Amino acid sequence: MTISLRLSDNDGQLFKQYAALCGLSISELIRVSVLEHIEQDCDLQAYRQALDAYAEDPSTYSLSETEKEMGFR
């Protein structure tokens, strides 16, 4: 897939300089940045779901309790 992106001259220069500093092409810099943003959003959503679940049932279990319950011991 090809994506076109319009940038101001200043933003274009910033992207080029930062990509060079990171040893990446501009395309790779944008791809990695967008993927990281998506991952952060997914992590935040999972955190909020876990926080809601904990608010409903604040029970916690130690690793050894969990292993015993799962039959690992």
Jot down its keywords:
73 residues, 3 helices, single chain, mainly alpha
Question: How would you concisely characterize the structure shown here?
Answer:
The chain is built from 3 helices and no strands.
Outline the structure in words:
The protein is mainly α and 73 residues long. The chain is 71% helix and 0% strand. It contains 3 helices and no strands. It is elongated. 0% of the residues are buried.
- End-to-end distance, in Å? 50 Å
Radius of gyration: 22 Å
- Average pLDDT value? 96
Q: Percent range for helical residues?
A: over 70%
Order of helices and strands: HHH
Low-confidence region ranges: none
Strand content: under 5%
Tally of DSSP helical segments: 3
Structural class: mainly alpha
* Major β-sheet annotation: none
* DSSP strand count: 0
Shape: elongated
